[in-house]
Amino acid sequence: MLQFPIQSYQENVLYTHDTEAWAYYRLQENTVGINEQEAENNLVNRLQRLAWQLATFEEIDYKIVPIPVDINQRMDRLQEQYEGQYAEIGHYYAERAKVILREEAENVVDYKFFIGVKLKRRELDESLIHTVSSSFKSMNRYLQRLAGFKGHEVDDVTVSLFKESEEEVFITLLNYLGAYRVKEKELRYIIRHQFVRGQAQPDGEGSLYHLTEGILDPGKAGYVHIKQLDQESWCAFLPVSDFPIDLSYKEWAYFFQSYPFPVEVNMRTVYKRKKEDVNQTNTIKKRFRDQDAQLIEANEDDDSLINTGRELLHDLENQIKNQGKPLLRTHIHFVVYGKTIEEVRKRARRLKMDFRDQQIELVQPLADQLLLFHQSLPGANIVADDWEQILTPESFAESLFTLTRKVGNTVGFYLGKNISHEGESVEGSQSLVFYHPFLAHLGLKGSKYSSPHVTISGPTGMGKSFLLKDILLNVVFFGAKVLMTDPKDEVEKKFKQALTPELELTAPFFKDLIESFNYITLSSEKKDAGKLDPLTFLDGEEAQDAAVGVLEYLSELKSNERNVKTAIYKAVRYVMQQEQKPGLLNVVRYLQTSEDPDVQNVGDLLYEIGTNGVAKLMFSNGDVEGISLNEQVNILQIQNLNLPDEGEKATTRDEHIAVALMQPLAKFATKFARDDSVVKMTIFEEAWMLMNTGAGDKLINELLRTGRSLRSAVYLITQSTYEYNKPQIKENIGTKFAFKGKTNEEAGNIIEFLGMEDNKANRDLLKNLTEGQCIVEDMYGRTAKIQTDVLFDEWISAFNTKENDRGRAETEEAFI
Question: What is the DSSP letter of 421?
């Protein structure tokens, strides 16, 4: 008869009825970037070395436990951070997100990694007896235990017997993988999980008796039926019955994490003495000799697989004898579970098929399911020993134990899904990606970057504006003040096009949200003249530098025209000193009065530019009314800008003016970002134009350096990462989103920018990204391929930047 193995527990150590002790730890999760073989090899190396080090202990219990993601809890925690005028709307959308995500991602889990180590007992020597001799009660408990009278409390003597061993284990794990001693609540969770697989998530509370409640019924061959008072579920335990000779790149404790259902893993490894390991190799050698004899008798040629195995066995025998390499007698079983037996049957079949593709054989024993259930309990003895596999530290390390595909933040708004594994789609993936825009600057434990700034890059039509607007609408719920520059003049138009009469009935909150934004549209009309004149909204040297920069750029001066450059400096300084309300038109008129014909000609040119077309925005007499940014969300739009193509120099006069306008626009945004009284988000659309000018490049660098202290997040939206791929900029970006790289050169540049491994697989990946897919590097330095995913129809309609196709797409697709 099977007996529940745990007699008692204290902190992270549990004690069995056999007076043995197991210490349990939660291991730090590891991530590697997409197609990053070097990082993966590093993890394999650490796992291999750990397997060697743990050989001094008798038995190890590795567990991968899928923890259900509580969507309600996460969204509730998020809503606690909502404040300001849009908090109520934020709560409305958070509640809608709950409903949608619960339905679309009901099996979403976080995989957590635990390790239990059977501790070595310290002998009860005289010094220990002397230490506790004053506590007769404790000694009496210990003597009772030796006599077989089992209590439920852990006495000091028992704890002291294993304390030294537990500390040794903890230090070892810290050195190789990073570990935390599990809290008692976590230990209770692991125990209770065994009895509620596929049912409500346990809370980790209750007595030992409560943790083990449940009726286990193995009556259906190949399954275990678990019954609670008001719930029931089914489980199937699938042990590994055969491994291939070479386990390289099999990733057998990782690849299933992309499944749309949870998979649990239990691995028990037993170490024996060197002499027994040598005997094990001798037994295998005898099998090879028997196989050779059978081949000779049958007059058949040698089997290449047998020859390979013979060579590997010879090397292993030498390593055991000369280096003390341990053998891991390993018992591995996977667990799938669900609400119905049919659901479990399909999941077990999928798992067996996919492992067979890896040349790994899983079986579903008919009669031993209850034994395997018992064996998965913490501290249990191995009772189903028919599927023992002999592994080396190298082959065990190929499991990639502790590798996770987690990316993004734990608490944040829903951004999309991780689709890094080949063949994954947004419909099939259960790997949700959450994002929080105001965490990176807090310097959280484990984070690689402590900057709130973000880049979103990619060619037109691939989804970068869609992603930006999704972030924008979610950010306002946190009470953040926003300034967005929109040189394309499209945001207001697209947002308000989505406000149909039907939408007002189905999503009234959305109408209130969109219409409350402060859309500031600047045009070539006389009423807007001078609103971006740097002398009207900047002061001191900053105003002077900005004014000189704009005038020099518009004048298109050559390097030998120093007299004109000097005159511009003097004119700006003169007007600022003499005029109570200085403006750039005053500077231009001053240049027109110069006796130097070259300076006079430049003054005439600037006057024509500054009094015609959209350039009027930069020129005033100093008497203009400033732009109001009193609202929480301000979108600054400029009409009729003719922007040059990405990476191209301005060639026409209109393009030249458009680039010049970006400089005072950036200065205006910089002034907004410097207000440290509130959390802010400053968005630069078409930011590449700024980086193409000396003044703009300087501005961006300043904002990136000072943003964290000013509580300001800067979002740079651009078609290429080329201008940002510099250490002084890259190090100040906390999160990076990169959409498709059209050329091999651009793909290589993105790879360098994101810190990915440069190989053909990654270049092909970037070139083959489709609309809405991007590579993200989060604040922890983790990279993944994600598909952006917006949950609300009215948002999708408002984010669409494509023109109405008048049914052309539908007509074309009808004949495909």
Answer: S
| CA atoms within 13 Å, Cβ hemisphere of 305 | 4
Say if residues 199 and 233 touch (Cβ distance below 8 Å): yes
Burial 348-372 (b: 16+ CB within 10 A, else e): bebbbeebeeeebebbbbeebbbbb
Task: Flag the least confident range among 149-163, 201-215, 410-424, 726-740.
Answer: 149-163
SS3 (DSSP) at 261? coil
Distances from the Cα of 603 to the Cα of 92, 565, 585, angstroms: 57, 12, 10
CA–CA gap between residue 42 and residue 134 (Å, rounded): 51
Burial class (CB in 10 A: 0-12, 13-18, 19+), 293: exposed
Mean pLDDT estimate for the chain: 85
For strand 773-777 and strand 215-217, is the pairing parallel, antiparallel, or unpaired?
unpaired
**In terms of C-beta density within 10 A (0-12 exposed, 13-18 middle, 19 or more buried), how is residue 651 classed?**
exposed
pLDDT for res 144: 41
Query: What's the gap between Cα 82 and its chain centre?
Result: 22
Helices (H), 221-368: 274-297, 304-323, 341-357
SS3 label, residue 674: coil
Domain extent listing, the chain: 6-69+105-271+326-397, 435-517+633-802, 531-623
Q: How far is CA 528 from CA 177, 534, 631, in A?
A: 61, 14, 19
Q: Can you tell me which residue has the tokens 């200065």? A: 667
Please count the other Cβ atoms lying within 10 Å of the Cβ belonging to residue 806.
8
What span, in angstroms and rounded, lies between the C-alpha atoms of 229 and 750?
55
Which letter, b or e, does each residue of 584-623 get, where b requires 16 or more Cβ atoms within 10 Å of its Cβ? Answer: bbbbbbbbbebeeeebbebbebbbebbeeebbbbbbbbbe
Q: Which residue has the tokens 């939660």?
A: 26
Nearest to 355 by CA among 235, 243, 261: 243
Q: State the CB neighbour count (10 A cutoff) for residue 813.
A: 8
What pTM did the predictor assign? 0.85
Tokens of 412: 């944040």
Residue 606 is predicted with a pLDDT of 92
Give every CB contact of residue 559 below 8 A, 6+ residues apart in sequence.
none
Q: How many CA atoms lie within 13 A of 235 on its CB side?
A: 32
Helix (H) or strand (E) holding 484: strand 481-486
Question: Please, are residues 396 and 410 in contact by the beta-carbon 8 Å criterion?
Answer: no
In 3D space, the residue among 604, 597, 534, 510 whose CA is nearest the CA of residue 561 turns out to be 597
Distance of CA 117 to the CA centre of its chain: 30
Question: Is residue 402 a contact partner of residue 27, using CB atoms and an 8 Å limit?
Answer: yes
- Give the CATH number of domain 435-517+633-802: 3.40.50.300
Instruction: Write down the pLDDT at residue 397.
Output: 95
Nearest 5°: the CA angle 421, 198, 259 is 10
Angle between helices 87-104 and 508-516 (to 10 degrees): 130
Closest to 774 in 3D by CA, of 132, 163, 34, 89: 34
Q: How far apart are CA 161 and CA 21, in angstroms?
A: 9
The number of beta carbons lying within 10 Å of the beta carbon of residue 711 is: 18
The two three-digit tokens of residue 672, written as one number: 């907004």
What is the distance between the alpha carbons of residues 7 and 15, in angstroms, rounded to a whole number? Answer: 6
Residue-wise pLDDT for 501-557, tens only, equals: 888 788 889 999 999 999 988 888 888 888 899 999 888 888 898 899 899 989 988
SS3 340: coil
CA angle (1, 17, 53) in 5-degree steps: 110
